[in-house]
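hey can u check if this looks right to u? its 476 residues, i copy pasted from the old doc so theres a chance i mangled smth
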Amino acid sequence: MHVSSAGKPLRWKRPCATVSPVQDELNEAIRAADVEANARAIAILDGDASLIKACDREGRTPLHVACEALNEPMVRWLLEHGADVKRRDTEDCTPLDRAVGEGGAVDAERFAAVAGLLRRHGAELTPRAAVALGEADWLRDRHAEERLTNPVGPPGGLLSIAVRHDQPDMLALLLEMGFDPEERMRVSGIEQHVESAGMPLATCATLGRHAMAEMLLEHGADPNSYVYASGTPMSGAYGEGDGVRRQEMIDLLKRHGGRLPPGKVGLFRETELGRAMLIEADGAAPNAGRDSVAEQLLWGAAWGGDPELVRLALERIDWARDDSRWFKMLVQPLRTGNYHSGDPNRGSDRGTYMTCFRLVLERCDPNIRTRFNMTMLHRLIGRYGRSDYGLSDAERAAFAALLLDAGARLDMRDELLASTPLGWACRWGRVEVVKLLLERGAPAVEPDAEPWAQPLAWATRYGHQNVLRLLRGHIT
């Protein structure tokens, strides 16, 4: 059972009637936070005033949503029309709590304006809001009464809020009160016990809060703690910021024992550090049950576009050519452009990814299959979830040419779309890839395909006229 900030169990009772479909439209308009969208939201609310106090699936009223978006004009309008500043959503958060935010740096001016409006209309302080607003006396009083707790969720807790809102005095006060500098938590929704820790220091690292990072380190924060699904504070320092300030953060964490895991060493192109790791690993006993240092470095270096580290790691990997693990290594170079923002080479030489892809491809079978019997050609051509890898059509065709040169077959069908690589290219409208596959001998008409899985059928269904012209030009 979940626990509220006051230490009471939450029953997750929704404080309103059935959620109306218009609620999604209303929330979207409020979150857009521009003049036109606000006018649209007000028109919806004028048409049905009951929506002002209605809530969405998370128990959030329009005021909660407007506060989360720091949409001051909508907050003002809602308050003037009777919105409840004390309503709590299913996570026990008030509109003022939602204004505090849950991730990243905060626009201090917009937050102050929204928080001021809410307070003038009777919003009560909560621990989250008190930290964000710097209300030290309120926090001290609650602590003295033993009523100040620090519920920690995925975005962290009170210490992380202090960091995001650039409130070093609040951070010092919370540490003085004895709150955990790591803000450890068990990750919910996972059957096994998985712990996340280190969000306050990781937030310092990504936002460049040097003085607060020092404060946390002095109180025992670990630069190598793992924030679930986000990495360590050390990797955060490498991955964000620019110039001198970024290097200062990296140096600070290093002085306190911070180190990059092998995968991140490759991703951030720390070639010499990776070389030293490999030499050290050569003389160490294998770590049973875990990927070797070479495997982790290969994964990161292929993603980061570091050919030298890819070569060094490949020398230490002896997988068979048809080992399925090669597939995930081939995918990494396709994720081009994922340098950290402080990298002086950011986006300057995308050709290194092609080199990394070729080096891995020389070691494996180009026709390895993965889920739904997809080959690497299928994966390269299509989309993976919401990701399109950031590749241009010409780059995608260049990667495809490397696969074809290595012996990738044109006649293999997956189990998802029951289509050949050409069918996939036609479905996604990859003009340059279609041209390449046709030139390499892919038939424009596939007699053995289901009618709906024919290349022409895919291009017709999705209206890819350029692809249709190419196909028709190859039909005799």
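The chain is about 50% helix and 0% strand.
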